[in-house]
C-alpha cells in the first residue's frame, strides 16, 4: 500500500477522532519506538519499513504522522513529508509545530504546490493564530528574504527577536544562509 493510500484509508475510519486522541498501544507503540530508533541511527529505509507495521487505521495518528514527517524530511522526499504535515495540520490545527512543519516541507517540495511563496502563504495565517511563537516570524523573515523583500524580512525578524531569546536568535540568524543579505544589519543588534 502506498503512503498516500495509507493516509486516505486511515482518514476513512469512523473511529478516527476517538483513536487520534489516545496514545498508541502495543504493538503499534513498539513499532513507533523502533521507527524512532532507526531514524536516530540515520536509517530512514528501516524506519519506513518499521512504520509500515503500524495498523493501517493508526497511520494517521498524530504521533505516527510526526515521525513520518521526520523520516521523509531526512530522506528529502518533500512531497510525502508535506502530506504528513498537512494531515497533522488537519488533526491538530491548534499545534503551531504542525503549521511550521507543513511550511518547511512545502518550501522544499519540488514542482507545483511547492516553493518559498507557498510556504509563506501557509505561515501567514499561522502567525495570526500563534502570535507568540517566535519561529513563525523568523521563518517568515527567511521567506521574505528569499523573495527579495528585505524590508518585510527585517520587520518579521524584529518580531521574532521580540518574542524569542534575542541573543540566541542573533547567533542563529547570523549563520542562516536565508538571511545572508541581512547579516550586516543583524550583526549591529
- What is the number of independent domains? 2
Number of helical runs? 12
Structural category = mainly alpha
- Taken in chain order, the helices and strands follow as HHHHHHHHHHHH
User: Helix share of residues?
Assistant: 55-70%
- Report the biggest beta sheet as strand number plus sense, adding barrel if it closes: none
CATH class of the largest domain: Mainly Alpha
Describe the structure.
The chain has 189 residues and is mostly helical. It folds into 2 domains: 1-114, Alpha Horseshoe (Serine Threonine Protein Phosphatase 5, Tetratricopeptide repeat), CATH 1.25.40.10; 131-189, no CATH class. It is 68% helix and 0% strand. The chain contains 12 helices and no strands. The chain has helices at residues 3-11, 16-20, 28-40, 44-51, 62-74, 78-91, 96-108, 116-129, 135-146, 150-163, 166-173, 183-187. It is elongated, with a radius of gyration of 18 Å.
What are the salient characteristics of this protein?
Serine Threonine Protein Phosphatase 5, Tetratricopeptide repeat, disordered N terminus, 2 domains, 189 residues, 12 helices, mainly alpha
Amino acid at each position: 500500500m502506498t503512503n498516500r493510500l495509507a493516509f486516505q484509508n486511515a482518514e476513512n475510519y469512523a473511529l478516527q477522532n476517538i483513536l487520534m486522541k489516545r496514545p498508541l498501544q502495543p504493538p503499534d507503540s513498539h513499532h513507533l519506538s523502533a521507527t524512532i530508533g532507526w531514524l536516530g541511527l540515520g536509517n530512514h529505509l528501516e524506519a519506513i519499513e518499521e512504520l509500515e507495521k503500524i495498523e493501517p487505521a493508526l497511520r494517521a495518528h498524530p504521533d505516527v504522522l510526526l515521525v513520518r514527517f521526520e523520516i521523509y524530511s531526512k530522506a528529502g522526499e518533500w512531497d510525502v513529508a508535506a502530506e504528513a504535515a498537512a494531515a497533522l495540520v488537519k488533526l491538530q490545527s491548534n499545534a503551531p509545530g504542525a503549521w511550521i512543519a507543513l511550511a518547511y516541507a512545502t518550501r522544499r517540495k519540488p514542482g507545483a504546490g511547492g516553493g518559498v511563496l507557498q510556504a509563506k502563504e501557509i505561515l501567514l495565517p499561522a502567525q495570526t493564530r500563534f502570535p507568540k511563537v517566535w519561529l513563525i516570524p523568523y521563518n517568515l523573515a527567511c521567506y521574505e528574504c528569499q523573495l527579495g523583500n528585505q524590508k518585510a524580512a527585517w520587520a518579521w525578524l524584529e518580531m521574532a527577536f521580540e518574542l524569542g531569546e534575542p541573543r540566541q536568535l542573533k547567533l542563529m540568524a547570523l549563520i542562516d544562509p536565508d538571511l545572508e543579505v541581512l547579516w550586516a544589519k543583524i550583526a549591529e543588534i
